[in-house]
Design a protein that fits this description.
With about 160 residues, this protein is an alpha/beta fold. Helix content is about 25%, strand content about 25%. It has a seven-stranded mixed beta sheet with strand order 1-7-6-2-5-4-3.
């Protein structure tokens, strides 16, 4: 994968902290995609993002409701589109993607055709024991700049 960034997390608490640190940098209209196997840490990462947005309410996977909304510094629209695997529905996702909050989509590949072209894809992979490799893949200028800020890179790198 070209143009990507990686972090290894040894504990769920670190995965949460990585999400929280990213959450501090997010702005209205940001779209974060979370991909990974079951149990890879997608929801833990999303909980961290929520904490970084100042959300105090318990965040859990919206598996059966598809979309849950939370209020914080910015609204968080947390989607789990796993159940849409076998059916294509236009559920108005673009209203969230272009809205005044941050949209987090778990299992985003199931709605690939509806995703905005500019986004940050985050892949979580099991790499043994509790270890997870977290790969950030930015699409678009906003997300390339976000990754550089998050990984403390200078503009010349």
């Amino acid at each position: 994968m070209e143009n990507h960034y990686e972090i290894v997390s040894a504990l769920p608490e670190k995965t949460f902290a990585i999400g929280k640190n990213l959450g501090h940098l997010l702005e209205a209209g940001d779209v974060i995609l979370l991909e990974g196997d079951l149990g890879a840490g997608k929801t833990t990462f999303a909980k961290g993002l929520a904490a970084g947005l100042g959300i105090r309410k318990t965040v859990n996977s919206p598996t059966f409701t598809i979309i849950k909304e939370y209020e914080g510094r910015l609204p968080l629209y947390h989607m789990d589109v796993y159940r849409l695997e076998d059916s294509f529905e236009d559920l108005g996702f673009d209203e969230y993607f272009e809205g005044d909050g941050v949209t987090v989509v778990e299992w985003a590949h199931f709605i690939q055709e509806q995703l905005p072209s500019d986004r940050l894809a985050v892949y979580l992979h099991h790499v043994g024991g509790e270890n997870r490799k977290i790969v950030f893949k930015p699409y678009g200028t906003r997300y390339k700049a976000l990754c550089k800020e998050f990984f403390h890179e200078s503009p010349g790198n």
